[in-house]
Structure formats: C-alpha cells, structure tokens
C-alpha cells in the first residue's frame, strides 16, 4: 500500500499516518519530523531550514524532495509500501513525487485528503502547543501555516482527483473513528486494485 496525505495543519496527519504505517507494516515518511530532527541535531540541513520552520514557511522544494527521494528508495528496498506524511505541500513537490514514483515504480495508490474546518484545526493546534511545545505552534505562526496550506497546498487536491486516486476523509471526528474510516477505505482500495505495493 502506497499512501500520501494532503491535509491542513492540525488535521491529524501524523496520528493517522502512524496508524496506517502500523496497520500495513510500511515505512512512515514524515517530512516535518525529519526536518525537526535535523534542527534538533543542528546539522547543516537543520541550520538551513530552522528559520523556515520557526516562521511556518515551507522549506525549499529541492531540500524536501532530496529527503523524500532517499526515503522512497529505502521504502522500495523495505518491501514497496509507504505512507507519506506532510509531503507533497506544493504542486512542484506533487509533480516531483510523481516523477520519482514513476522512475522507481513506486507511485502512490491513494491520496488521502483529511478535511476539517479552520476553527477545529486552530483548537487542535492550540491544544498541541500546550503538550508538545513546538516552536511553530504559536498563534500567529499557526494562522500563517493555515494560510500557506490554502494558498499553496490545497490546489494539489484537484490534481489527485483528476488522477483518480483522491480519497476524502472527514477528520472532524475523534481520531479512532477517523482511523477506522481510513483503514476501511484503504482496504477497499487494496481489494479493487490488487495492491502491488503490499508488504
Ligand atoms: P508538519 O510537521 O508536517 O506540520 O511540518 C512542519 C513544518 O516543516 C512545516 O511548517 C514546514 O516548515 C516544514 N515542512 C514539512 N514538510 C514540508 C514540505 N513537504 N515542504 C516544505 N516544508 C515542509
């Protein structure tokens, strides 16, 4: 099973990607977590991206896609499945991910779109700010990340709809109900496509 997720900040991508990864026993590739790890370790890449993360700006496509390419090569060696969490975030990343997928015979089977309204997203981000203390969970940065999502990321959804792999999910409910819907939808898709990428 090869899945990518397009969702606004606070929709629960990370939580749901973890469920998908464990259900299908596939690698969970989370660009935000990989980038935060570089920042925490103060690597050269971390130094280059720290300000972008702190301001809620997107990291340049080339940096992200180099990381994603390596992760997809590793996922191929590990059995052929993956769940991409937090990427693609721009149309250029969507096209690049597709090119990488074609080249490695690893294109996504499903693009999950987690849907939630802005008030609910901001409520969840505020709750997370208290628990996780992420540097990008301040009120101004949260609102900015939401704007970036609508301007730059949301337009990708139409592209996946045209490709016939878009699966919309109502993410306004408790995480375990959302997870059940997602697993049901992915299992249904696996039955109809035969899922060459199952591990
Ligand atoms: P996330 O954990 O997915 O909410 O991502 C946290 C932050 O990491 C984002 O606000 C961006 O600064 C950066 N980031 C994560 N994924 C990407 C991506 N695919 N493209 C650009 N920036 C990203």
Give a quick precis of the structure.
The chain is of the alpha/beta class.
List the helices and strands and how they pair.
Elements: E1 2-6, H1 13-24, E2 28-30, H2 31-41, H3 44-55, H4 61-77, E3 82-85, H5 91-104, E4 110-115, H6 118-132, H7 139-153, H8 156-163, E5 166-170, H9 175-193
Parallel strand pairs: 1-3, 1-4, 2-3, 4-5
The chain binds adenosine monophosphate (AMP).
Adenosine monophosphate is lined by residues 9, 31-32, 35, 52-53, 56-59, 64, 86-87, 89, 93, 136, 145.
| CATH secondary-structure class | Alpha Beta
- Counting DSSP H or I runs of 4 or more residues, the number of helices is 9
**Mind describing the biggest β-sheet?**
5 strands, parallel
CATH architecture: 3-Layer(aba) Sandwich
- Number of beta strands: 5
CATH superfamily: P-loop containing nucleotide triphosphate hydrolases
Please provide a written account of the structure.
This protein has one domain: Rossmann fold. Helix content is 62%, strand content 12%. The protein has helices at residues 13-24, 31-41, 44-55, 61-77, 91-104, 118-132, 139-153, 156-163, 175-193; strands at residues 2-6, 28-30, 82-85, 110-115, 166-170. A 5-stranded parallel β-sheet has the order 2-3-1-4-5, sandwiched between helices. The mean pLDDT is 95. Adenosine monophosphate (AMP) is lined by residues 9, 31-32, 35, 52-53, 56-59, 64, 86-87, 89, 93, 136, 145.
């Amino acid at each position: 099973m090869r899945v990518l997720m397009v969702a606004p900040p606070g929709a629960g991508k990370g939580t749901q990607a973890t469920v998908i990864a464990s259900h299908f026993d596939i690698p969970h590739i989370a660009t935000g977590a990989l980038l935060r790890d570089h920042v925490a370790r103060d690597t050269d890449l971390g130094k280059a991206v720290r300000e972008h993360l702190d301001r809620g700006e997107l990291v340049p496509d080339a940096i992200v896609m180099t990381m994603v390419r390596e992760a997809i090569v590793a996922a191929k060696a590990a059995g052929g499945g993956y769940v991409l969490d937090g990427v693609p975030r721009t149309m250029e990343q969507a096209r690049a991910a597709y090119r990488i997928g074609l080249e490695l015979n690893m294109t996504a089977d499903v693009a999950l779109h987690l849907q939630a309204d802005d008030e609910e997203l901001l409520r969840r981000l505020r709750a997370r700010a208290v628990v996780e203390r992420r540097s990008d969970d301040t009120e101004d940065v949260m609102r900015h990340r939401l704007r970036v999502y609508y301007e730059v990321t949301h337009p990708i959804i139409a592209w996946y709809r045209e490709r016939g792999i878009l699966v919309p999910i109502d993410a306004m409910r408790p995480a375990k109900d959302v997870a059940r819907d997602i697993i049901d939808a992915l299992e249904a898709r696996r039955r109809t496509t035969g899922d060459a990428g199952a591990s």
